[in-house]
Design a protein that fits this description.
The protein is an alpha+beta fold. The chain is 25% helix and 29% strand. The chain folds into two domains: 46 residues, no CATH class; 90 residues, D-Maltodextrin-Binding Protein, domain 2 (3-Layer(aba) Sandwich), CATH 3.40.190. The strands form three sheets. A three-stranded antiparallel sheet has the order 1-8-2, with helices on one face. Strands 6-3-7 form a three-stranded antiparallel sheet, with helices on one face.
Amino acid sequence: LLASGEITVGVCITKDLPANAKRKLLRNVVPMVLRTDVSDTPLTLDEYCSRPHVVVSHVANISSFADEWLEAVGRTRKAVLSIPQYTTLPALMAVGNMLCNMPDYLALALSQTGALHAEPLPFVTPTLELSMSWLSVMDSDPAERWLRRKLEHVMGTGKGSL
């Protein structure tokens, strides 16, 4: 989206960026799992892999970083549903026994109501970097600079830039 000009700034966990893009680290992200049921013991890897998963993806993917990490240890999970945004997630999870992976800051926020419960994933994951990216041609545009400052204030933790 950034390379095509559909957006002028993006906030995401970046893998590849256009050569003319700039990037600023906003925060480190620890992946977590969200669930509706409460247990005295954390999810086991077997339970995690056997339960249905909902994936939040604006492009309707049902795979994510978690699938890559599981593949590295010879495991898979059952992604059964993809939704485009987090707003419908609590209602969907309330009617099923589904799990959903998400960044720590979002999992902890969604679990504040008590209907959803956040916990660490039952396998080792790398810490991810949430970054803000933009094209270098937009670097000095006053409106874009204002927008980037606001995004950094809301999404960042005061960490330096890359």
